[in-house]
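Email to the structure team, subject: MarR family transcriptional regulator model.

Hi all, the expression group asked for a predicted structure before they design truncation constructs. Nothing fancy, just the tokens so they can compare against earlier work. One-line instruction: predict MarR family transcriptional regulator, return tokens.
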Amino acid sequence: MDGYGLPMASLDILLRLVRSPDSRMPMTKLAREAALSSGGFTKVADRLAKADLIRRVPSETDRRVTYAELTDHGLDVANRARETAAQVLREHVLTPLGQDDSRALAQAMRTLREANTPED
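Reply from the structure team: attached below.
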């Protein structure tokens, strides 16, 4: 997705956060879901924080947990990126497949997500 001036790994993080409750997620879980190493994720998070897209928020109940949370600016960018991603998906995937095949694809993706989502 062009137009946001961010690498795909950064956009992926923003999109994961915007879909999370309160637009935040524990940093370790976010790194795991994004398939980034601890060091790789730290670099991405540092760049996002410097760009005022996320902030690090310590857990009020567990000193070991730090959350990545979207800032207002990050929420705006993430929402625009989510709409762009949906538009690209509709144009390049769903429209060519047609209604029936799109439904079948959606069901297959749900099945794969359920089969591969680790229990927390």
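The beta strands are 24-26, 54-58, 66-70. The longest helix spans residues 72-116. Ping us if the truncation boundaries need rechecking.
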